[in-house]
Amino acid sequence: MTDRYNEMLASLVAKLAQRDRAPAQVHIHLVTMSKWMDYVSRNPEARQLSKEAQPAGVEPFYGPGVPPAPAQDPVPAHIRRRVTTSDLARPTQAARSLIARYFVTRLLKSGHTPGRLGFGAPAALFCYIDRDMGLSR
After folding, report:
1. Quick one: pLDDT at residue 27?
2. Angstrom distance (rounded) from CA 117 to CA 106
3. Predicted pLDDT of residue 108
4. Are 43 and 4 in contact (CB under 8 A)?
5. In this predicted model, what pLDDT tens digit does every residue of 66-94 receive, in sequence order?
6. Long-range contact pairs involving 43-49 (C-beta distance under 8 Å, separation at least 24)
7. Which of 1, 31, 37 is nearest to 13 (CA)?
8. Strand (E) or helix (H) holding 16
9. 96-127 pLDDT, tens per residue?
């Protein structure tokens, strides 16, 4: 089932680049999360991860914030560095970080600069996905 879903996503990405006013194919990249989870899960120790799932209730930690946010991560590293969350279907913050690094590396190698799409981003940047998926802004 996962393979079929991934095939459908790849088809959507390929067709998206063929549409009028669509971004060029080199500007579209599909990150298949299931393949990356398989890749990370094959040898987690090489990435300082554990195959165990995190217990329920572990919240992401983005670094020290404004008080009363903690100055240090309250979750021990041996729990933080696990591959999946408690439901076994989602990658942890540590696993997502590895996937994000791959994606940013691909962007940089293709000559792009990572940035952020904020509320001021032109609506034209969103119209391709919204229109194809039946979503509206």
Report:
1. 67
2. 18
3. 82
4. no
5. 788 888 899 999 999 998 889 888 888 99
6. 44/83, 47/98, 48/81, 49/81, 49/82, 49/83, 49/94, 49/95
7. 31
8. helix 2-16
9. 888 888 777 877 887 777 666 566 655 555 54
Query: Rounded to an integer, what distance in angstroms lies between the CA atom of residue 101 and that of residue 91?
Result: 14
Task: Confirm if 82 and 52 have CB atoms less than 8 A apart.
Answer: yes
What is the enclosing helix (H) or strand (E) of 53? strand 50-53
Taking the domains of the chain in order of start, what are their residue ranges?
2-133
Which among 79, 40, 83, 89 has a CA at the least distance from the CA of 58? 79
DSSP-derived 3-state class of residue 51:
strand
Helix, strand, coil shares of the chain, percent, nearest 5, are 45, 5, 50
In the numeric block, the tokens 């930690």 are attached to 61
Q: What pLDDT does residue 13 have?
A: 78
Task: Extract the tokens encoding 31.
Answer: 């990150």
Query: Peptide bond before 55: cis, by omega within 30 degrees of 0?
Result: no
Site of tokens 């994606």: 103
